[in-house]
Specification:
- The structure is a homodimer.
- The first copy, chain A, has about 550 residues and is of the alpha/beta class.
- In chain A, the strands form 6 sheets. An 8-stranded mixed beta sheet of chain A has the order 8-7-6-4-3-1-21-22. Chain A has a 6-stranded mixed beta sheet with strand order 9-10-11-12-13-19. In chain A, strands 15-16-14-17-18 form a 5-stranded parallel beta sheet, with helices on both faces.
- In chain A, strand 3 and strand 4 form a beta hairpin.
- The longest helix of chain A is centred in the C-terminal third of the chain and has 20 residues.
- Chain A is globular.
- Chain A starts with a strand and ends with a strand.
- The interface between A and B is large, with 72 and 72 residues.
Chain lengths: ~550, ~550
Amino acid sequence: MSGALRVIPLGGLGEIGRNMMIYEYEDAAIAVDVGLLFPDAEHLGVDVIIPEISYLRRDPSLLRAVFLTHGHEDHIGALPFLLRELNVPVFCSELTRGLIEVKLREHRLLDGAQITVVEPGQRVSVGPFTVEAFMVSHSIPDAVGFLIETPLGDVVHTGDFKIDHTPVMGQHTDLTRLAQAGADGVLLLAADSTYAEIEGHTPSEQIVADALDRVIGSAEGRVVVTTFASLISRVQMVIDAAERHGRRVFVTGRSMVNNVAMARDLGYLRSRPETFMNQRQLASAADSKTIIVCTGSQGEPTSALTRMARGTHPVVAIGEGDTVVLSSNPVPGNEKQVYRNIDALFERGANVIYNRIDAVHVRGHAAREELKIVHRVVRPRYFVPIHGEYRHLVLHRELAVELGMDPDDALILTDGDVLEIDGEDAAVVERVSSDYVFVDGLGVGDVDEFVLRDRQHLATDGVLVVIAAVDRHTGRLTRPPEVMSHGFVGPEEEPALLEAVGELVSDIVGGERAGRRDWAELHDSLKDDVLQLMQERTHRRPLVLPVMLEV
Amino acid sequence: MSGALRVIPLGGLGEIGRNMMIYEYEDAAIAVDVGLLFPDAEHLGVDVIIPEISYLRRDPSLLRAVFLTHGHEDHIGALPFLLRELNVPVFCSELTRGLIEVKLREHRLLDGAQITVVEPGQRVSVGPFTVEAFMVSHSIPDAVGFLIETPLGDVVHTGDFKIDHTPVMGQHTDLTRLAQAGADGVLLLAADSTYAEIEGHTPSEQIVADALDRVIGSAEGRVVVTTFASLISRVQMVIDAAERHGRRVFVTGRSMVNNVAMARDLGYLRSRPETFMNQRQLASAADSKTIIVCTGSQGEPTSALTRMARGTHPVVAIGEGDTVVLSSNPVPGNEKQVYRNIDALFERGANVIYNRIDAVHVRGHAAREELKIVHRVVRPRYFVPIHGEYRHLVLHRELAVELGMDPDDALILTDGDVLEIDGEDAAVVERVSSDYVFVDGLGVGDVDEFVLRDRQHLATDGVLVVIAAVDRHTGRLTRPPEVMSHGFVGPEEEPALLEAVGELVSDIVGGERAGRRDWAELHDSLKDDVLQLMQERTHRRPLVLPVMLEV
């Protein structure tokens, strides 16, 4: 395998989230991004899902460094789990460092971590790789892509990006650097596919700035704005509008408070000294002079906006005259909880402005016409679509082919595929393990499909515990069976059902059917017969747990 | 209350689904629609959610008849549960009858049911009401709204509708009848709000017919089309395109097979005799001559399309050369499972066409410009927005006010509100119970919030059962405690944790802390201490079920 570049996605290809790409040459590798995936409803009780790194674990000297494109959870969230095992140097931009430091501190890994801030244009050499960050526009400041020089040629890894010619915080996607790289020759382009379904261009953040200014300028009462806590440019827009219209800003919700504080410390937010106010000042401020910036754009159950919607926020009670702006879209899967909040806020009498009825949000990813620009200027030898569900990868690959790329040179990888590029050719040569690793509480990887299946079973029909205490000498019940259920039926129906179970158990263990004295058989029979009875009576299948005690 | 019209939504206001509206005058009432709501992820194990009818149960002679607008589940699905208790006459259109008969037969209620088909224009008198159906365009044939004459004036109840000037199956929304009613004077308009967020007009079904014809005409291999099983007009388009392009149609998926058969029997689908083919004919048909129409547009786990996506369909194996068309949008909440299917079909090599990349679906509800037309021609004295989540009701009411309606005459109701209209005024005078009634298996209403909370608990961290058998005389354990868990931790971690629990229990029950002999206290202590230990060790909180047996 000597002399070949190996490209190995350990996450993020074929799904949104858990982004992690390995670039490997001979005995050295670097990782770009180490993200997490938020669990679906089916991942019962799972907190987050992280990439499997057993491939890296096999040879702990292989991985030499991690490069992070930007500070979103799907790109940095699994970093603590990686560093705990492989404490390699981390390279990232200033704001990204701010965000990962919070995270590493929580995991008590900050002291040992080796984090280096790199500016766009600066070059870092790691083993056979020389890596240079280039600026991209995305829905968080300080986002970059990487230009990776390898012995076989250059790789352009975009990370998440869009092309915004009028960004609010001055961060353009550096098409000049990309064009220069293209002119010098690019071996491989790995580019964001998240919005490969969307025709045309993603509108500029400026559209949102205008809409927010209009909404805030025309509101008579209080204005509440929620957005992603990492979307610092959106918070800047709110600050700008507040100052233009003589309002002051109160920030609430843990991650929003933390991110705003950090962004102000690092100089990412510009404001007048008096613009921000504290809770005491909020209490005495006129509604017409107030803006509240808060968490909850995704309807998260414990967020500030959800508390306001439910009337349980300790400081802010929403009512007539309030304007609430959701400057965000629901992430797929969150639609119901987001719209439930919107409905509840309307019910409280607020005027709610959200993306379906005004342009108060734009996306952070490149649509098809933007992708075409990048392909045109980079003109790579090979192309791998990254960041997206499988259909996005397919559509992005088709786009590349439409632009004239040889179909054999545009390759769809999924997690675990090992793409090997040598001087001649590019091909998937093997597959490494890249399973979901579930994190639940302190456990990393101990919740597996079987545990989830049990939870699913419990979630659907509850549990029924049957305890039969049997005399070890006579084989007879020493007392009536104990039967209890949880999550199975309501309190009115429960007693009769449990009594029926008790009778059945007495019958099986102590009655005429007690001839069967094989312990395991009796156990199975208890389980099957109780389940069958319950299914007949209720059409439900609780998890039946029979316990036989010899006493 | 004499002399007043009472309008009582028992479902469907403030949410999509479970539609049921009561119109009551003196001692008589009619219901329009009796629908169900599909459960959310949080309604663990619940099959469907139906309206609470305790209001009607109080005086079983109150309800005189049910009128159904169309055959979608959110308008007819709870009919069996109503008729089981209050077997009143049912009036509906021909196709709706076909659909409810299937349902009533399953519930063994068909024999006793009194179903009468009414044609648009036909008038039915029930107590003080005279009801006339008028044709509307919607995503199922034979949809109607109702014009309800009451002693106080006429009510227009639209049901679900859109305005389609070029419908595929000839069914227009009867604006002429509505205009006539408006000219004669309408007391109350109750109109569909589902798409009150959407600007402009919903495109005509003809757009979809054109797109399907283009896709089917240009496909080289097999074409698979999925849509809602009730969307008969869409199936007609596929038949038309098949016949134009020399293909034959195979139908798969239970509800699609049933609905197509029923629609053909009743004359709702026009086709040449040879157009449909059976499984044997499919096996010998060329791919280029084949269209498969199937269930699965919502990614339902057991549907035909999901089986194809997973490679488990008994007849159809999807691969390179196949074109799969999803002629539908994901219903909110179903996005993930729909896109998972699309991704899996792409992975199998199919070309997948869905609404984000081609116009293969249009919605079935009126957008804002269509709503304005209805308001303009009906010109009601009072307006109540129906069918929609709360924000849709608010936006629809605002639309009515923008059109010139007095804000006091446009009233937002939510489920259970009793709107009373007399000769002078309209006001909400009281509120009746209209809770969710959960159906789970055979149980109707026995699953309540407490059962769901237990299921949620079990779903998140599983269950841990601890059994301590205690000698009734000595108070000492007669044997080591039994400890078992399900859905809690994986098989590698489980033994050590269960052993630790066993030691703790022995310590509490049999050890030096055994001084506390109060049975209930000991039980609580077991539960609390075990939970605390597990939380320390795992950061999880399983449902701990301690059982103390005196033996």
